[in-house]
Amino acid sequence: MDKDCLFCKIINNVIPSNKIYEDDLLLAFNDINPQAPIHIIIVPKKHIRSLSDISQDDKELLGHIQFTISKIAKSFTELKNGYRVVNNCGNDGGQTVDHIHYHLLGGRVFGWPPG
Ligand code: 5GP
Ligand code: ZN
Question: Which domains, from first to last, does the chain contain?
Protein backbone atom coordinates (compact mmCIF):
# COMPACT_ATOMS: atom_id res chain seq x y z
CA MET A 1 0.00 0.00 0.00
CA ASP A 2 1.12 3.54 -0.85
CA LYS A 3 -0.26 5.72 1.96
CA ASP A 4 -0.62 8.74 -0.35
CA CYS A 5 -2.43 6.84 -3.13
CA LEU A 6 -6.17 7.41 -3.62
CA PHE A 7 -6.86 3.93 -5.01
CA CYS A 8 -4.80 2.24 -2.26
CA LYS A 9 -7.06 4.09 0.20
CA ILE A 10 -10.16 2.80 -1.62
CA ILE A 11 -8.74 -0.76 -1.66
CA ASN A 12 -8.12 -0.55 2.09
CA ASN A 13 -11.55 0.99 2.83
CA VAL A 14 -9.98 4.23 4.08
CA ILE A 15 -12.12 5.92 1.41
CA PRO A 16 -15.51 4.29 0.68
CA SER A 17 -16.54 3.10 -2.79
CA ASN A 18 -19.42 1.30 -4.47
CA LYS A 19 -17.85 -2.12 -4.92
CA ILE A 20 -18.84 -4.25 -7.89
CA TYR A 21 -16.42 -7.17 -7.46
CA GLU A 22 -13.51 -8.08 -5.20
CA ASP A 23 -11.06 -10.95 -4.87
CA ASP A 24 -7.57 -11.46 -3.41
CA LEU A 25 -5.89 -9.67 -6.31
CA LEU A 26 -8.19 -6.90 -7.47
CA LEU A 27 -11.09 -4.58 -6.74
CA ALA A 28 -13.74 -3.20 -9.11
CA PHE A 29 -15.84 -0.18 -8.09
CA ASN A 30 -18.04 2.46 -9.69
CA ASP A 31 -16.31 5.58 -10.98
CA ILE A 32 -17.26 8.68 -8.97
CA ASN A 33 -17.66 10.72 -12.17
CA PRO A 34 -19.19 8.29 -14.69
CA GLN A 35 -18.65 8.94 -18.39
CA ALA A 36 -21.23 6.35 -19.46
CA PRO A 37 -24.24 4.56 -17.89
CA ILE A 38 -21.81 1.83 -16.78
CA HIS A 39 -18.37 3.10 -15.69
CA ILE A 40 -16.41 0.71 -13.49
CA ILE A 41 -12.78 1.07 -12.36
CA ILE A 42 -10.77 -2.15 -12.03
CA VAL A 43 -7.57 -1.96 -9.95
CA PRO A 44 -5.04 -4.52 -8.78
CA LYS A 45 -4.57 -4.47 -5.00
CA LYS A 46 -0.82 -4.26 -5.63
CA HIS A 47 0.28 -0.64 -6.02
CA ILE A 48 1.76 -0.29 -9.51
CA ARG A 49 1.99 3.28 -10.82
CA SER A 50 1.04 2.68 -14.45
CA LEU A 51 1.19 0.32 -17.41
CA SER A 52 4.72 1.66 -17.95
CA ASP A 53 5.77 0.30 -14.54
CA ILE A 54 4.75 -3.36 -14.83
CA SER A 55 7.32 -6.16 -14.53
CA GLN A 56 7.55 -9.76 -15.73
CA ASP A 57 6.15 -10.79 -12.34
CA ASP A 58 2.91 -8.91 -13.10
CA LYS A 59 1.99 -10.84 -16.25
CA GLU A 60 -0.31 -13.30 -14.49
CA LEU A 61 -1.99 -10.47 -12.55
CA LEU A 62 -2.65 -8.53 -15.74
CA GLY A 63 -4.18 -11.60 -17.37
CA HIS A 64 -6.37 -12.06 -14.31
CA ILE A 65 -7.53 -8.45 -14.58
CA GLN A 66 -8.46 -8.86 -18.25
CA PHE A 67 -10.25 -12.14 -17.56
CA THR A 68 -12.17 -10.57 -14.67
CA ILE A 69 -13.19 -7.55 -16.74
CA SER A 70 -14.72 -9.97 -19.23
CA LYS A 71 -16.52 -11.78 -16.40
CA ILE A 72 -17.85 -8.53 -14.90
CA ALA A 73 -19.01 -7.34 -18.34
CA LYS A 74 -21.00 -10.56 -18.82
CA SER A 75 -22.92 -9.81 -15.63
CA PHE A 76 -24.39 -6.53 -17.00
CA THR A 77 -27.20 -6.79 -19.56
CA GLU A 78 -26.37 -3.18 -20.56
CA LEU A 79 -23.06 -4.50 -21.91
CA LYS A 80 -24.44 -7.36 -24.01
CA ASN A 81 -23.82 -5.49 -27.27
CA GLY A 82 -20.30 -4.46 -26.34
CA TYR A 83 -18.30 -2.10 -24.19
CA ARG A 84 -15.00 -0.26 -24.04
CA VAL A 85 -11.98 -1.00 -21.82
CA VAL A 86 -9.54 1.88 -21.35
CA ASN A 87 -6.17 2.26 -19.68
CA ASN A 88 -4.92 5.83 -19.49
CA CYS A 89 -1.14 5.74 -19.09
CA GLY A 90 0.95 8.71 -18.04
CA ASN A 91 0.43 12.40 -18.63
CA ASP A 92 -0.25 12.25 -22.37
CA GLY A 93 -2.55 9.26 -21.89
CA GLY A 94 -4.70 11.28 -19.48
CA GLN A 95 -3.87 9.31 -16.33
CA THR A 96 -4.90 11.28 -13.22
CA VAL A 97 -4.53 8.61 -10.51
CA ASP A 98 -1.07 7.02 -10.31
CA HIS A 99 -2.22 3.49 -9.48
CA ILE A 100 -2.70 1.35 -12.60
CA HIS A 101 -6.37 0.87 -13.40
CA TYR A 102 -8.73 -0.02 -16.22
CA HIS A 103 -12.02 1.68 -17.06
CA LEU A 104 -14.92 -0.57 -18.12
CA LEU A 105 -17.40 1.68 -19.93
CA GLY A 106 -20.69 0.86 -21.59
CA GLY A 107 -24.40 1.31 -21.93
CA ARG A 108 -23.95 3.74 -24.83
CA VAL A 109 -22.20 3.75 -28.21
CA PHE A 110 -18.69 5.22 -28.27
CA GLY A 111 -17.01 7.15 -31.04
CA TRP A 112 -13.56 6.67 -32.52
CA PRO A 113 -10.96 8.16 -32.42
CA PRO A 114 -11.04 9.07 -28.72
CA GLY A 115 -10.50 12.69 -27.73
P1 5GP B 1 -7.70 8.25 -14.91
O2 5GP B 1 -8.04 9.64 -15.34
O3 5GP B 1 -6.49 8.22 -14.01
O4 5GP B 1 -7.60 7.26 -16.02
O5 5GP B 1 -8.94 7.74 -14.08
C6 5GP B 1 -9.16 8.06 -12.75
C7 5GP B 1 -10.63 7.86 -12.49
O8 5GP B 1 -10.84 7.80 -11.09
C9 5GP B 1 -11.51 9.01 -13.03
O10 5GP B 1 -12.44 8.48 -13.97
C11 5GP B 1 -12.17 9.56 -11.78
O12 5GP B 1 -13.52 9.95 -11.98
C13 5GP B 1 -12.06 8.40 -10.80
N14 5GP B 1 -11.99 8.83 -9.40
C15 5GP B 1 -11.25 9.84 -8.89
N16 5GP B 1 -11.41 9.94 -7.57
C17 5GP B 1 -12.30 8.96 -7.23
C18 5GP B 1 -12.88 8.57 -5.97
O19 5GP B 1 -12.61 9.10 -4.90
N20 5GP B 1 -13.75 7.51 -6.01
C21 5GP B 1 -14.08 6.88 -7.18
N22 5GP B 1 -14.96 5.88 -7.10
N23 5GP B 1 -13.53 7.22 -8.37
C24 5GP B 1 -12.67 8.25 -8.39
ZN1 ZN C 1 -1.98 2.70 -4.94
Answer: 6-106 (3.30.428.10)
Contact 51, 89 (CB under 8 A): yes
Q: What is the pLDDT of residues 77-103, one digit of tens each?
A: 999 999 999 999 999 999 999 999 999
- The pLDDT tens digits of the residues spanning 26-81 come to 999 999 999 999 999 999 999 999 999 999 999 999 999 999 999 999 999 999 99
Instruction: Answer yes or no: is the C-beta of 96 below 6 A from any ligand 1 atom.
Output: yes
Bridge partner list, 103? 41, 86
* 101 catalytically annotated: yes
Q: Annotated catalytic residue: which of 39, 99, 101, 103?
A: 101
